[in-house]
Amino acid sequence: MQNTMKDLNLFRRLVPAVLLLLAPLAQADDSKKYSDYIAALEDTKDKHFKEIIIAEIENYIHLFADSPSVDSIHFKLATLYHDDGDEINSFFTHMELLYLYPESEVTSVCKDRLRFLLQEERKFAPLREVTGTLLNPSVTDSSRDGASFHFLQAMQELRFSVIQKPLIRACGRFMVNFPSSENTDKVLFWRAELSRDKKPHNAMADYLKLINLHDRSLYVTASMLELAELYSSELKDHDQAIVTLHTFLQNFPDDPQAPQAQVRIAEIEEGKKKQYRKAITEYLQVVAKYPKSLEAAPALFAAAKLHENKFREYEEAIKIYLRVVEEFPGDLKAPYAFAEAAEIYEKRLKDYGNAASVYFKIYGNYPESSIAAESLFAAAEINEKRLEDFDKAVMYYRFVVDKYPDSRLALKANRRLEKLTRQAVKE
By three-state DSSP, how is residue 39 classified? Predict the structure, then answer.
């Protein structure tokens, strides 16, 4: 009885080892049967089987990735595209072979076919300068998922719209074949980006998947911002877009893109929802939360514009325009903020003294600005025609002629000087 128990225990220990040894043999047998099945499909010589053959070859590559003959089966797929004149899929599949099987006997044929496509087919002309790099990829990771990822990365970095469709499909295959890969989130993001323009709803699904299933990914922030844009542009769900942006700001307040997200909320309130008061509040939040950001001055400028154009609150608009200059004197918006304030003084409030003063400040503070000559001329004209301060008008016109002799206003200022001089002589 004791010997029987020992034999039973030994048997139990040996069974897993035996099965492990037999597994490759069983897989090899299955691989052979599957490749025979594909060959039988090919032997039909019927074009109606083309899509089936493609699908079955892709299944084979997935099921028997470690088979010694997987490269030759994969090469069948490339050859099928090549013989059928499908240049785009032929290019893509031959490139994939170079990355996945760099030591295979089929690589030389792949390179010959790729070289012909790159040199002879017009659609591949943008890639001709990088032919050498394309045909000799540097694959540092020999693992199956590593090589597949590097292939996708190389194709994605080409930014070559011609291969967009096969690249989207390949991204999908990668996620099915290697669900536990550390690069799954990156590939998912690539697929979303590739789908964004022509299949925005697919892109939205991928962004949502990344946000919810890969919540610690570095691509979550970019996905949330892209998703918000698609909510607004594709679904016209502006409220959900704003909710998504607020969630982004709540979860990632220190993200470099946070100021842009805050601006986008304001822009949606203004441009899409026509909620101008809310838009002003959101624009001012940019300045309050991110005063050192590049978006702060333009946001303050936009808030002033809404006070001016939507509510005719001219005093408040001037106050905010002048804040732009005071708080962001070095920003490109600063001279234009001065100009907007001056124009309100002149055309809305008829306050010509302040109008002339602010116009002159543009020249005084920003003499190199593209509107400096125009603003100086405006200050001179107001002093002449509205304030009748001819001495100051003459001085400003001379500044225009002396400081901006090549401007279109120099000639006009010269004529005004001649007229004012004649008037002075008569008097």
Answer: helix
Q: Coil, strand, or helix at residue 178? A: coil
Same domain, residue pair 226 and 92: no
Select from 312, 376, 379, 306 the least CA-distant residue to 349. Answer: 312
Would you say residue 20 lies in a domain?
no
CB contact at 8 A, 124 and 162: yes
CA 232 – CA 225 distance, rounded (Å): 11
| Residue 300: Cβ within 10 Å count | 24
Q: How confident is the model at residue 24 (pLDDT cuts 50, 70, 90)?
A: very low
Residues 51 and 175 in one domain: yes
107 and 41 part of one domain = yes
**Could you give the CA distance from residue 9 to residue 340 in angstroms, rounded to a whole number?**
92
* C-beta of residue 402 within 8 angstroms of C-beta of residue 372: no
Query: Which residues lie below 8 Å from residue 421, measured CB to CB, with a gap of 6+?
Result: 394
Q: Determine if the pTM surpasses 0.90.
A: no
* pLDDT 10s digits, 255-293: 999 999 999 999 999 999 999 999 999 999 999 999 999
User: Domain span at residue 277?
Assistant: 256-350
Percent of the residues in the chain that have a pLDDT greater than 70, as a whole number:
93
| Residue 278, phi then psi, degrees to nearest 5 | -65, -40
Q: Between these two residues, 16 and 111, which has the higher pLDDT value? A: 111
Q: What is the pLDDT of residue 10?
A: 47
Structural contact between residues 239 and 246, judged by C-beta atoms closer than 8 angstroms: no
